[in-house]
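Friendly challenge for the regulars: who can give me the structure tokens for this chain first? No prize, just bragging rights.
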Amino acid sequence: SPAYAKLKNVPPVNPEDDSAKQLLHSMLQYAFFLRVNRGNATGSSSSSPKQIQVVPMQEFASDYYYAWFYEGSQWRTYFGAVALVAVVLAGVMFPLWPMKLRIGAWYLSMGGFGLIGLFIALSIFRLIFYVITLVVASPGIWIFPKLFADVGFVDSFIPGWDWDLPPPKKEKKKKRGEGEEKKKKRKQVGESDSANGAGTPVEKAPSGARIEEVSDHDD
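First reply, four minutes later:
Bragging rights claimed.
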């Protein structure tokens, strides 16, 4: 490549020698790197990363694109697997534990069950207290109102109590010019009424003329 040609104190590369290409082609079966096709950019900027898609037919050539796949160190995975097997074996071999360890495990289990029972008792007590305060002091009081909220452990017990107030209602935004439109409609209605009746002047009948009422139905 032109970048490699600019380097100094590096071994020369013969472009006509295909040994390097053959070596890289033989490494494709181990999936250290794979040939890919470059797609469109993931963002609007020109420097955004582009989507790549693995090509089913793998071969090596200097004008193709390749992606290097590296999963990193796997020591955490191996350590977790060994620790899981050790815990399972230790639980199975509980009858062979020394007496002090078995007593300690019993106290720990009892402590865990006690915390679970305390949580259930607290939930029942706060519900009963809320029902009583709902009748006596509406709208009711919740003890630890965030106990079942999606917050941290400490935030679940803050505040200690709070009123069960309904969430504030969102006021509907009035459209601009709504009042002006109503005024215009009222003016239009008034003008139409005046044109149809009461406000129009009546011409005077000429002198000497007689006005008679004519019935709608003939005799």
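The mean pLDDT is 78. The chain has five helices and five strands. Your move, everyone else.
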